[in-house]
UniProtKB/TrEMBL annotation:
It is a multi-pass membrane protein. The gene is ENTPD1. This is Ectonucleoside triphosphate diphosphohydrolase 1. The active site is at E174 (proton acceptor). Pfam families: GDA1_CD39. Its cofactor is Ca(2+); Mg(2+). Belongs to the GDA1/CD39 NTPase family.
Amino acid sequence: MSAQREMKEKNPWHTPVTIIITVIGVIAIVALVTVAVLQNRPVSQKYKYGIVLDAGSSHTALYIYEWPAEKDNNTGRVEQTHSCKVKGKGISSYASEPWKAGESLTLCMQEAEQKVPKKRHHETPLYLGATAGMRLLNMENSSASDKVFQAVEKALQKSPFSYQGARILSGQEEGAFGWVTVNYLDDRLMQGLETTGALDLGGASTQISFVSDNYDGSESPSNSVAFRLYGNDYNLYTHSFLCYGKDQVLRMALAQQTQSGPRTILDPCFHPGYTEIKNYSVLYDSPCVSDRKPQGAPVSFNHRGNGSFGQCQEIVKSVFNFTSCKYSQCSFNGVFQPLLQGPFGAFSAYYFVMNFLNLTDTSIPLDTVKDKLTRYCATPWDQIKLQHPNVKLNYLEEYCFSGTYILTLLTEGYNFTSESYSNIKFIKKIKGSDAGWTLGYMLNLTNMIPAEAPDSPPLPHAGYVSIVTIIALLLVVLFILSLRPLWPRCSKQPHII
Ligand SMILES: Nc1ccn([C@@H]2O[C@H](COP(=O)(O)OP(=O)(O)OP(=O)(O)O)[C@@H](O)[C@H]2O)c(=O)n1
Ligand SMILES: [Ca+2]
C-alpha cells in the first residue's frame, strides 16, 4: 500500500500543478475554437427584409424578400418569403374613387406586418411600382392618376416600414428588372453564365428582354440597357409593348370586330355557345382603342362565340403592324428586335394561360400545340364550364383567346420558329421566388448587385472551421507531448508491490 502511494506521489501527472496546467490548456484551446467558430459563423438568425408592391393593371401583389444580414452586397441570397394578392382590381381601376386604391392595400400590409419581425419593421424598405395600367391612366387622365398615387402614398406612409415611394416604372425598367430577376434567381449573373431572356405578359403591356451577341445597343438605343453586374458587362435588348398585354389586346380584337357598330358579333376567339351582352362604352374605355370607337353605335352588343382557332388567329394578327421597319429587322409595329438568342423564361400571364391549357411543355411540336388549341377553342362553352367548375368565369372565358394571342405573339410577333419555340420555358417561380420585375427592382434600389465581383473569402466557412479545429487539436496533442518528460514510466516497469 505504501509503495503504491509512493508511486502516485512520484507520478508527475498527479501533481496538482500539471493537472491545473493541462486543464487550463484544454480549456484555453476549447475557448479558442469556440470563439473562432462563433465569431465567424454566418449570423444566420439575422435577416433583413424588403417589400415591393407590384401595382399591375389587373391586380396588385405584395412581395416580401429576405436575405441574411451580412450578405447585403454579396452573393445571390435574396429570397421571396411571402406574397399577398390584393383583393379586387388594379389601382388604376380606382380612378373615379381614388381613396379605395389606398384602402385596397390594407389587408396585405397588415399581413406584411405580421410576417416581418417587429424589430426589423423600421429598417425594412417598402416600394410600390406601378406598370401599364397606371401608364395608360396617366396618359388618359394624369390628374386622376396623381390622385390614385396620393391615396396609395397615404396608406403606405401609415405603415411601420421604411416607405421609399410609389412611382410608375417605364416599360424599359419593367423589362430590364424582369430579366435581372430571372437571371439572378438562376445564379447566372454572379457566375457570368449565358443569360436567359425574359418574356413577361401582363394585362396591359408585354415585355421582351434578352442578350443577343450581335446586338451592341447602337441600333435603336432606346431598346438598349447596359449593365455591369458582378464584373460582367451586359448589353440588354428590351422592349415593352404598351397595349399588348392580354386584356388590352382582347379590347383591340373586339374593336376590330365592332368597327361597324353591330348589335351582334360572332367571335372565333370565344367558345361556341358563349353569349354575353357587352357595353360599347366599357369596351372602348381605354387609350388603346378609344380613338376607334364607332360613331352612332348602339349601347351594347351581343358577344357570341364560334370557337375557331384559325379565324381567331387572323383577327389577332390584325392587331400587329408588320408593314414598316426602318431597322435591319423588326418584331412588329416598326420596333427593332435583334436576332433571338438563348433560352427564354416566359412568366406571368404566359404561365397562367399555358398552364391552364396544359401546354407548358415546349418540347411538344408547335403544330401539335396548335392542334390542341384548335380543339380546345372548338369545345362548347357549356362543356368548358362543366369541366372547370372551380375556375373563375371571367378567366375561363378568355383562355382560347389568350392561348391564340400567346402563340401569335411568339411566332408572328417575336419570330420564334417551330425550332426556337422549344427554347422557351413557361415558368411561375424560380427557387420559390415569383418571376417578375419586383425582385430586380428591389435589388437595384438597395444596391444589392455590385458592379464588380465581390471579394470571396479565401476559405469557405466550413473549410475555415475545419482548419481551426484541426490546428487546435494539433495544439492539444503537442501540449500533451511536451509534457512527455513528466510522463510516468510505470507502464514499462513491472509493478513492485
Ligand atoms: N389565374 C389567372 C390569373 C390571371 N390571369 C390573367 O392574367 C392577366 C394578368 O396578368 P398579370 O401578369 O397579373 O398582369 P398585371 O401585372 O396586372 O398587368 P401589367 O403587367 O400589364 O400591368 C390578366 O389578363 C388576368 O385575367 C389569368 O388568365 N389566369
Ligand atoms: Ca405585370
